[in-house]
Amino acid sequence: MNVQSYSTQPAQGIRGEIAVPGDKSISHRSIMLGSIARGVTTVRGFLRGEDNFATLNAFRAMGVAIGDDGETLTINGKGLYGLSEADDVIDCGNSGTSIRLLTGLLAPQRFYSVLTGDRYLRRRPMKRVVGPLGQMGACILGRDGGEKAPLAIAGRPLTGLEYRSPVASAQVKSALMLAGLYAAGETRIIEPHLSRDHSERMFRHFGAAIETGATGVVIRGGHELTGRDIIVPGDISSAAFFIVAALLVPDSELLITGVGVNPTRTGILDILTAMGGSIALLNQRELSGEPVADLLIRSSALRGIEIAGEVVTRAIDEFPVICVAAALAEGKTVIREARELRVKETDRIAAMATNLRAAGVTVAESDDGMEITGVERLGAATVESFGDHRIAMSMLVAGLVAAGGVTVHDVACIGTSFPDFFPLLEKVTAR
Ligand SMILES: O=C(O)C1=C[C@@H](OP(=O)(O)O)[C@@H](O)[C@H](O)C1
Ligand SMILES: C=C(OP(=O)(O)O)C(=O)O
């Protein structure tokens, strides 16, 4: 995508039926597990975003044959020890999921790897995976004592670990689970509360030796996985922009079909419903071990609420667009215990505070959240994406209800997770 800036204007109603592209988290994991399984894995509904292509290209660089007929990916799995050394640095682009999960997967290989990414990714914290992997026996060097990429990984045998993670992070959990597939004995990961469990579900789908329960997730090392067929559901994190748009724009009724509604991801639905949003889950079903539904959204008057605790983890990527909903809700919305937002593609607390203030909203920042006082109408604004796809899309949603519209600079980043965002936006706002 080559778009440099884009403007949205007040819309008359968000109407019709759309399907959003495949889930980003599940798409990454399908390539990783398919590549180290024995036999063929097929993936339908793969998200064709830049982040997922970073993962796909990494495995091609390590000798995995991955066919693509435009609809289905066919991965010729190499088995646990079938990857070969990439002959260059592996570039993870903007993708935190790629670099952190790959660090776990590459630490126990019999070869050397170097992982890097774009200027945003090279600023993000890596010690959260490098630290516990080191306790398992991994040899990983990085800038700032292993905190920042590029990361250099000298593969070596690992030993299982019981790790109590200080953060509820699916990237930390999944990195250790992938390392645990190779480690001697058992690897147990205990989280402060359950983060998205796509890895647990997919490990089971591929036949890994895995147990889950109140005492965390346990992986027994040394068991081969078996290639499987996967259908990737629509990404609820992408649907979120259209859900909020349909709630905020008067005279809207939107059906979003085939959205993943894994309970570890539906915090956005719980938060918006608690704010007074009308969201119905229809036609609930299951695809490749993941729950899926169609979502029917109607314009609603929203009210401010308090958001803290485990729902924060279940809605972590949706906070930029939740801030937009809060800006138009009656009263105050208080977000707490969301410090993780400061270490995403950008500091999402600071970015949304700056951008909403530009549109006339009163926002108070705290260390781990913010307080947003709703207004009846947003003002016209010109803002930056800060190189963050979710900030860009959230502010374009804000433009649909801002007198005079919103212009966002540097929107090419949207291609990392949602390549079809602009055509879909044009489709649902067309009159
Ligand atoms: O495991 C994953 O696929 C992801 C986990 C989350 O990150 P953290 O693990 O850092 O919370 C999320 O923000 C990211 O978009 C995708
Ligand atoms: C945080 C995100 O992704 P990642 O950590 O994979 O870069 C996101 O997509 O919002």
Number of strands: 24
Looking at the overall shape, the CATH architecture of the largest domain is Alpha-beta prism
Termini separation (Å)? 25 Å
Q: Residue share in helices?
A: 25-40%
Rg from Cα: 21 Å
What is the CATH topology classification name of the largest domain?
A: UDP-n-acetylglucosamine1-carboxyvinyl-transferase, Chain
Largest sheet: 5 strands, mixed
Number of helices: 14
Ligands, ions, cofactors: shikimate-3-phosphate, phosphoenolpyruvate
Described by the principal axes of the CA atoms, the overall outline is globular
As a percent range, the share of strand residues is 25-35%
In the CATH scheme, the class of the largest domain would be: Alpha Beta
Number of domains: 2
* The CATH homologous superfamily of the largest domain: Enolpyruvate transferase domain
Low-confidence stretches: none
Subcellular location: Cytoplasm
Binding site for 3-phosphoshikimate: 24-25, 29, 169, 171, 317, 344
Subunit structure: Monomer.
Binding site for phosphoenolpyruvate: 24, 96, 124, 171, 348, 390
